[in-house]
Design brief:
Rossmann fold; six-stranded parallel beta sheet; 518 residues; 13% strand; alpha/beta
Length: 518
């Protein structure tokens, strides 16, 4: 079987990537290596059925699943090394036949393929969250066990009736996983507090760190203390500025750049190194290849990879060598703003819940919009900028994940004493949004679907898939999803989602706002 991949939103022609390379830039060899890795993980899940799952088994599967997330690992040699790690665990547990993923991708029953893909991609996204929590010393036996249960289902002969409950369970377990990661982040770094983050890069040596892993940022900050090197976040690392124990480091100065998919242009003339910690690396261009460093599961051929020792001295030396900008360099967001804000997690929002509830009762706040998710390069994502710009002045926009870069530098003023745009954090901080929604529903003695709240989401990769499954598990209805619907959702499964949950594609900002507020 040749390459076949339809796991991300930008997949070729909205159907699937085939041939020698995917739209994301991964080669056919890497894609096939990831399929082989997935087949090995299914073999491990089969070998472990009815047996005790060890720490080594969990590590192998979390690493394997995370390695397959879009824009994480472009090095098929390194992917094969992870496959061998999994195979060692298969052997240690008595062995099992490796599963051929072409049985899923080439399945004649598109509904079964669709359900299995929803489970698999949900597992991949959830594995990233579990991985980050585990790095901070937080783990859950229930969450870990489900990775193996879900993988067995992907490699099983189950029909759609047997698979759909596991699709729902993927959402349920991911909710528990997001809660675990929230506890890990806040337990390690404190409860996020509202913070204004400058987009100006100060003169002198600096490092840009991107991704999601707060532990890597912590270690980088500790190693740059007193070195005369500033640190700037990029992409999903922006919410780190709101954590008290991280912002205590004075060299954590601000945020560099706009959306993650603009990195090939924005990194080209940057006189500083960039450290990739998770799934946000695009094919590296020669104009900045000498300044790229990777760590954890992120790998790209020819780039310097920092292993488990987490010695970032090479990154620091590169920053000192390059020297940074000779003068302060004022950058802006996509819409020309010079600052962005973050830190409006559930702890902050719920601390003023009485004020918010009172404002709703008095008619000062008319509606809440949750506009967030993954950003991407495909045309049509300006919808989210226009949508937010056109929301009425008596509404609040809750946002999270990197999709917020489409509008987070806009100055929309305040409503009822709150900024109209409230950045709740990374994609996993959908947990915070859910906590706030449930608290509001309790206060108004109604269901979440009866609140003046609507969800307009953008998706790109597998973490967005598992978040969507969690929202569906919680029974949240009438979600608008875009820029396009997933290619791996078959017509019958889509019909089920539409009829059961009211999931709908975005149309135009004007039409969708009219439908929501009308």
């Amino acid at each position: 079987m040749g390459m076949f991949c339809f796991q991300c939103e930008q997949t070729a022609l909205g159907k699937g990537c085939a041939g020698k390379a995917g739209v994301c830039g991964k080669t056919q060899e890497t894609a096939l290596s990831q399929d082989e890795l997935t087949g090995a993980m299914i073999a491990l899940s089969r070998a472990l059925e009815g047996k005790k799952i060890t720490e080594a088994d969990v590590h192998a599967v979390l690493t394997g699943l995370f390695t397959c997330v879009t824009n994480t690992n472009f090095d098929d040699e390194k992917v094969r090394a992870v496959t061998e790690l999994v195979r060692e665990r298969v052997s240690a547990n008595g062995g099992a036949p490796e599963y051929d993923m072409s049985l899923v991708w080439n399945a004649e029953d598109l509904d079964t393929r669709s359900a299995k893909t929803l489970i698999l991609l949900g597992l991949r996204g959830m594995a990233a969250y579990a991985y980050h929590a585990k790095v901070l010393g937080f783990s859950s036996d229930e969450v870990n066990a489900f990775f193996f249960e879900g993988l067995r289902a992907v490699g099983s002969d189950m029909d759609l009736s047997g698979l759909l409950p596991l699709v729902t369970k993927t959402g349920e377990i991911n909710f528990k996983c997001m809660e675990l990661l929230s506890e890990a982040n806040t337990g390690s770094y404190g409860m996020p507090i509202p913070t204004t983050v400058p987009l100006t890069i100060e003169k002198g040596p600096f490092i840009v760190i991107t991704g999601h892993d707060l532990k890597d940022l912590q270690l980088l900050l500790e190693q740059t203390d007193g070195k005369g090197v500033n640190v700037y976040t990029h992409g999903e690392m922006l919410p780190a500025h709101a954590y008290p124990k991280l912002k205590a480091h004075p060299q954590l100065k601000g945020n560099f750049g706009t959306a993650w998919q603009n990195q090939q242009k924005e990194f080209a003339n940057m006189p500083a190194p960039v450290l990739f910690t998770t799934n946000c690396i695009m094919p590296v261009r020669e104009s900045y290849a000498d300044r790229v460093f990777t760590t954890e599961v992120v790998q790209y051929p020819g780039m310097v990879h920092i292993g488990e020792e987490k010695d970032f001295s090479a990154v620091i030396e590169k920053a000192l060598e390059l020297g940074g900008y000779p003068e302060d360099n004022p950058l802006t967001g996509i819409n020309g703003g010079h600052t962005v804000t973050t830190g409006f997690g559930h702890g902050t929002v719920l601390s003023v819940a009485d004020t918010v509830i009172d404002a709703v009762k008095q008619g000062k706040i008319r509606h809440f919009f949750l506009v967030g998710g993954c950003d991407g390069a495909k045309p049509g994502r300006n919808y989210y900028t226009e949508f937010v710009q056109k929301t009425p002045a008596d509404t609040v926009i809750l946002t999270l994940a990197c999709g917020k870069y489409r509008f987070n530098d806009l100055d929309l003023g305040t409503v009822a004493g709150l900024p109209r745009i409230l950045d709740m954090g990374q994609c996993n901080d959908a947990y915070s949004a859910i906590r706030v929604a449930v608290a509001l529903a309790d206060a108004f003695q109604c269901g979440v679907n009866d609140l003046p709240l609507s969800l307009t989401l953008s998706w790109y990769e597998q973490k967005a898939v598992c978040v969507l499954l969690t929202l569906l598990y919680l029974g949240i209805k009438n979600i608008r999803l875009g820029p396009t619907l997933p290619a791996f959702v078959s017509p019958n499964v889509l019909d089920f989602l539409v009829k059961t949950y009211g999931v709908a594609p975005i149309t135009t900002p004007d039409e969708d706002l009219k439908a929501i507020l009308g």
